[in-house]
Amino acid sequence: MPRVAIDLLGGDAGPEVVADAIASYLTAPGDERTELCVVGPIERARELLGARGVDLDASGGHRVLHAEACVPMTASSQDTLALLREREDVSSAVGIRAVRDGQADAFVSIGHTGATVAASVLGLGRLPGMGRPGLAVELPSARGPVVLVDCGAAPFATEHDLVRFAACGLAYAQARGIPEPTVGLLSIGSERGKGDRLRKTTDVALEEHFAEKYVGAVEGHDLVGESPADVVVVDGFTGNVALKSMEGALRWSVAAMSKVYDDPEPARGVLRTSHFLSGGVLLGVPGAVVVGHGASARDEIVACIHRAEQLLDGAVVDRLRRSLVGFASLDARGEPEGE
């Protein structure tokens, strides 16, 4: 039976919403359940879950892994690294160590994204041939899901990073049921030669490495429109801006429709079922890690648990490892080691 560690701490709304999600998941109808390892203060976890009708002590394989602290959502990159190195009881580090040490098969957190990424790299390392890991989300486009990578893990990515994002993204798309996925580069225009230096050098590199699988540059409206690519790669800074812009546009659209029509529930249903609200997948580390939005509600956190189950069912980490065979590992600057 798969085992998923879930971070009780972190997130915008605190541990209560995570406890809501855990209780909802464990009490939902179904057959055998994934075993959950709740990462957080032991007594606090028992108290929150007990108030929601879940007795962890009588629940078989479900258990608590003690973590006393979390990285504040407002913490800078420097403060995040300092806290991870100074304390062993930070929830993101405890959850990742559980994966590393075989106590869990996957880790889910809606806490500080940078903390989860940093803890993953520090605790698990990187897959051979990888540089910075990338965060992938599935966007609900007009013709089916589009995998966007990176969405915030590597804001200072190089063209070498983006090539590896493409390799990982293609492998992930296949695991998600797209038999012959294609890849594109997010830019300001589809014409060759447009964009800044990163876009221009990456365009050449993607064509060299992926040939007929590379469809060229795509624009922002392609991400949720009739995208010619199943996988779209971009640096984490631009990808995060694009993702949050889409989230804001969707929420505005839902609110606007709710005001116009007597029954706002169909519009709200669109928001609840949007794929990109169910967690990003960290590609490039030897472990299954799902990073949810800090503002995730109960159902979205449950969807993150299901996303972790999908990673394990599809043996995604093994697929990623195979996709990177032949690539040189990258140094801290995002350049091939030894060059």
How would you characterize this protein structure?
By secondary structure, the chain is of the alpha/beta class. It folds into two domains: 1-124, Isopropylmalate Dehydrogenase; 135-277 and 316-339, Isopropylmalate Dehydrogenase, CATH 3.40.718.10. Helix content is 42%, strand content 16%. The chain contains eleven helices and eleven strands. The protein has an eleven-stranded mixed β-sheet, sandwiched between helices. α2 (42-50) links the parallel β2 and β3. α4 (91-100) runs parallel beside α5 (113-124). The longest helix is centred in the C-terminal third of the chain and has 25 residues, at 236-260. The protein is globular, with a radius of gyration of 20 Å. The model has no long low-confidence stretch (mean pLDDT 89).
